[in-house]
Amino acid sequence: MTPVTTSHERFLAPDNIIVSKTDLKGRITYANRDFLDIADYAEDEVLSQPHNIIRHPDMPRTIFKRAWENIAAGHEIFAYVKNLTKGGDFYWVLAHFTPTFAADGSISGYHSMRRAPDRPVIDEISVLYKDLCDAESAAGSRKLGLEAGSALLDARLAAHGLTFDEFNFMQTVRECAA
User: Fold this and answer.
1) What is the pLDDT of residue 174?
2) Residues 48-57: b if buried by 16+ CB within 10 A, e if exposed
């Protein structure tokens, strides 16, 4: 059950790195101390749980769809993510999602490292994420919502000649949010 959200923001220390690992279905198999501390969970509360236990409702599904498509295809992806704590507070991270490969080259799970983001980027990306969430909810169904959110994101990126990774790395959020 998703907790009631608050307007209280928590901040990851610049030298902290959140690490988590999941199986192929996105269930948590490892969470480091930084993850547990900022999200207010005990290890036994998150192990075997879906990683979306920390998904904030303000996060567009479009962003996670893009992340899952990339890592399932064997690629890494970077994205700014607003996460939810057990008590309903929130915190922002710059997340690096990667597949974990078995000895035979197959994908055996997923790995994410997250660090404190640049504050000016978060102030700007919040505008884009709100637009994506609005497009998703206005579409009438979950499927159409994902299509609408993806189309809006692709249009904003194309208008500036950027890929999703370039968007996150070059911190050109201001241009794409407009």
Assistant:
1) 47
2) ebebebbbbe
